[in-house]
C-alpha cells in the first residue's frame, strides 16, 4: 500500500513540475513573441529611414553633378535619361 501511495505522490510531484515548467515556458514564449514583434517593427522603421536616406543621397549626387562636379556625371546622365523615359511613358498613358 505504501508503494502505491509513494508512486501516486511521485506522480503528483512530477505533474506539478511539468505544469510549472509549462507555465514558465508559456510566459517566456509570450515575452519572446513580444520582443520579436517590437524588433520587427524597429527593423521596418530603420529600413524606411535607410530608404529615405538612400534617396536623399542619390538626389545629392545628382545635385552635385549638375552643380558642376565632374564625378558621377555618367550616373547623373543615366538617371536623367531614365527619368525622361518614365515621364514619356506617363505622357503616353495619359494620351490613351
Automatic annotation (TrEMBL):
Entry annotated with the keyword Coiled coil: yes
Q: Which UniProt keywords apply?
A: Coiled coil
- The species this protein belongs to is Polaribacter dokdonensis DSW-5
What is the official name of this protein in its record? Answer: Mis12-Mtw1 protein family
Coiled coil start-end: 8-56
